Amino acid sequence: MTTEKVDVLVIGAGPSGTVAASIINKAGYSVKIVEKLKFPRFVIGESLLPRCMDALTEAGFIDAISEKGFQQKSGAKFVKQGKICDFTFAEQYTPGWQWTWQVTRADFDHTLAQTVEKMGVPVEYETTVTGIVFNGSDSVTTVEDIHGNKKQIEARFIVDGSGYGRVIPKLFNLEKESVLQPRKALFAHTNDVRRSMADEPNRITAVVHDKGVWIWIIPFSTGITSVGFVGDHTFHDKFSGTQEEMFRAMLASEPYTAERFKDVELIFEPRKLEAWSATTDKFYGEGFVLTGNVTEFLDPIFSSGVTLATVSAQTAAKLVIRKLQGENIDWEKEYMEPTMQGVNVFRSYVMAWYEGTLDTIFFSKNPDPVVKAQICSVLAGYVWDQSNPYVELHATELKRLARKIELTEKLGSLS
Ligand code: FAD
């Protein structure tokens, strides 16, 4: 078996792997990415958040992405039985990016991988990590290509950005169950011929359907729109037939999607994903760090996935560089805590969404503009700004606000 040597081995060429690889490579270390699939490859996660633009900028990816002409996104809209709550990122509380993109991930991820290759990081496609042996922080990783050829890669450090592959947690039994209830999604890309300017292609729309069920509508610049139904099994079990039959029946089951997507052409057979929430006890160990989805993936509702993936990769990459320079890193304090801060804030919002707390807030009769701007910052991904009470007190403040709104509206209806 042949053996190669690099400073840093990155597993996975998704957003987290490529961001980490680019930043470490820029610091002068040799980096290699191994990627199980051939790119472009399909992956879901098409609506980005403004906060990820900071990480994409530091990785040097913004120009290459801009050239692709993806749909710009400047807000997020929530719709429930004719009521609308519209967030515009330009009106957010935390200073920062006020827009981002809605992307077809096959093209987006391919662009990141090609850009990092141009920067000098080799990406070895159709190459799967099958085993890792650590010797202190040094490691020997066994990889196998699609022809069954095996080789070893010696590295001083590993960044695991393998997403749903969860390579290191699976190899070393670090898997832990998420506290979130398992949910399913059925989704497709549609030829959105009835899209009008009123449907605002520059934002994601989340339509509240049944209790605990919602629909994402993510328009792309090509006229294609991604549509997905998310709910627990009781909703999905109501539909039968092929995936296409179920998807069309779901579209017909909600008045807005029934009209806009009636008989719409589907670009691919609808796909199903389920039970995606997962986590691990620790996001680091001697000789490795986990980034992106491998750390914790929550739920699609607030489009947090790519932002947490790129921001965790950005943080991890800088720590890896300092570690390679000989510094002693306090991974718990400098990596685990800030990463969990982002995850915990989004988890509170995901729970508040499914419990109905955010329904009360989003569709209240007289929203307070200051509070709306603060919540808007969370929806833009600025979940590390402790000066924002809806970040700092995320676990309690949403419930308190919802109770206040309920009381005010009740008193208003009595007077
Ligand atoms: P990935 O993008 O999954 O990349 C990991 C790469 O690692 C893959 O290319 C994979 O092939 C490779 N790999 C895996 N195993 C191995 C191995 N053994 N060896 C080598 N390579 C390997 N996020 C958003 O930001 N916005 C959204 O609108 C959104 N919608 C979503 C909807 C649903 C239904 C779900 C389930 C998720 C959604 N997400 C969304 C989350 C998003 O998909 C992920 O958070 C994001 O892709 C994570 O990026 P990553 O780089 O960590 O992993």
Count of alpha and pi helical runs: 14
Helix content: 25-40%
Termini separation (Å)?
A: 81 Å
Mean pLDDT, as a whole number? 96
Which parts are unreliable, with pLDDT below 50 for 5 consecutive residues or more? Answer: none
The assigned structural class equals: alpha+beta
> Care to count the β-strands?
21
Anisotropy-based shape = globular
Largest sheet, strands/sense/barrel: 8 strands, mixed
Gist of the model:
The protein is 36% helix and 26% strand.
Structure commentary:
- By secondary structure, the protein is an alpha+beta fold.
- 36% of the residues lie in helices and 26% in strands.
- It has 14 helices and 21 strands.
- The strands form four sheets. Strands 1, 2, 7, 8, 9, 10, 19 and 20 form an eight-stranded mixed β-sheet that branches. Strands 4, 5, 12, 13, 14, 15, 16 and 17 form an eight-stranded mixed β-sheet that branches.
- β9 (138-145) and β10 (150-160) form a beta hairpin.
- The N and C termini lie far apart (81 Å).
